[in-house]
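To make the argument concrete, we let one protein speak, a sequence paired with a row of structure tokens, as a model reads it:
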Amino acid sequence: MRQPYTPAPPHALVLGATGLIGRRLLAELLHGGQAAAAGTRSDGSEAALLAWLRGHDVPTARLTTVRVDLARPDLGLDSATAHRLRDVRDVYNCAGRYRFGMDRQEARSANVDSALHALTWASRLPGLRRAVHVTGYRAGGVLAGPPSPAEASRLYREHGAYEAAKIESDAVVRDLAVREGLPLSIVNPSTVIGDSETGESGQYIGLAQTVRDLWRGRLPLLPGGPSTFVPVVTVDHLARFLAAVPDHDSAGTAAVPAHWVLDNETPPLHELLRGLAAHLGVRAPRGGVPVGLLRRLPRALTGVEPETLSFLSADRYDTASADALVRAAGLTPPPVWPSLTRWADRLVAEDFGDRPRPRSTPTVRP
């Protein structure tokens, strides 16, 4: 009698596998011949992921899918599923909720508690080589340690729930790693845009919303000033970078190595938007509006989500460790301007997500 096919025991687990970053990372691992597991929340999300993988010709013979619940400390795994994951050595936590306008409880549950549950579970794996936690380029290293209640209140008041939760999660997972001896790497990507060749993203918030307003003639002024810098990274380069981290971050590196992954050749925001306007054949705003004025004006007038204003900064970021890993892994970052124009073309072709989506397209980056 023919036996049912059983995939090889997975050596990597991707949490948040249905999101923009997670599914691209999973594809990268499977294309590289790794036996990998994908954590999904429901039958529907698993079906959407499998459809996306099939639609992108990703080999799935070495793929295992498991149901996870990041709201629970043990990830909600039953004993049989936990046994199937016994040989996992690399755990990637790409889970989280990328959305502005959340309240504090929702943002903490999705971005702080879930990260602690994922990494605490990973720390108990007998053969763990490395856990990789994905957060954001404005969140890394802001706090020296977990915030006190008073510090947390100030953090959420000043930054808004989404960014504050990412900042808090960065601090608490570092603390966990030191206390538990967890081999942890943190990756801080900047704004993630579409594939460098196809422009595909499937995500339509953040900078994509500004491009949408530019395309639709609803951007009367350029936000920020001439030096405002909103760096980008393509999703395919980020996926290749993440896949390479466990091979190149070792016990000999920093206690908790952190990598800022972004393209320093990204033009300043005003130059970027003017360039995209020229590429798309639409009129670019002539003037700008400083962030300080945007903060004082009512949202009903500006149409700008207040939580996004902290991203309009002239700050620059230390990419030395990421650049070193890119060289060691033999990666070649794609050129930024062609990637930006392909992403913008794709956003326009997809009407910025306003038309019905295929079932395989995620709505947010978990």
The domain at 12-202+232-264+316-334 is CATH 3.40.50.720 (Rossmann fold). Confidence is low (pLDDT under 50) at residues 359-366.
